[in-house]
């Protein structure tokens, strides 16, 4: 890995963030979790912010890889959307400590650079947008503006799930079922539509 950021170091940082919280976590705790000395981190110029950025990049790559099979699936758009929401929840659970740390710092990683703070980065929303566009085309999903609905879905699913897990201390199954049911009823076409 680049700049001395080994997998063991990133895993240690993730575990230390989960155990202590980003704000309270020290470089000593990260070093101990990674099996290195704090001096090693200092010599390499590795800070909590550097580690968080690398973990965020790893989470983004994992999200893209997990969404790919959903995008290339032959399933109908409603089934693909259901699976995409499950993937989003699974990725939120897998990278919970990183996402909580990012939310406590700044959510700039999720936004396009510049003045476009109202736009979530396409790397996160494009898979959902493609599914919504397919569903709009075949009449199975409600999405007048797939890009806007994809942004709302990504944020609603991800942040609601994280809040229910961390703020309300709901278990993964309960939080996932609640979020999934709530959002899917908003975009799936019913017989009444």
Automatic annotation (TrEMBL):
Keywords: DNA-binding, Transcription, Transcription regulation. Residues 26-45 bind DNA. It comes from Paraconexibacter antarcticus. Signal peptide: none annotated. Residues 3-63 form the HTH tetR-type domain. The lineage of its organism: Bacteria, Bacillati, Actinomycetota, Thermoleophilia, Solirubrobacterales. Pfam families: TetR_C_24, TetR_N. This is TetR/AcrR family transcriptional regulator.
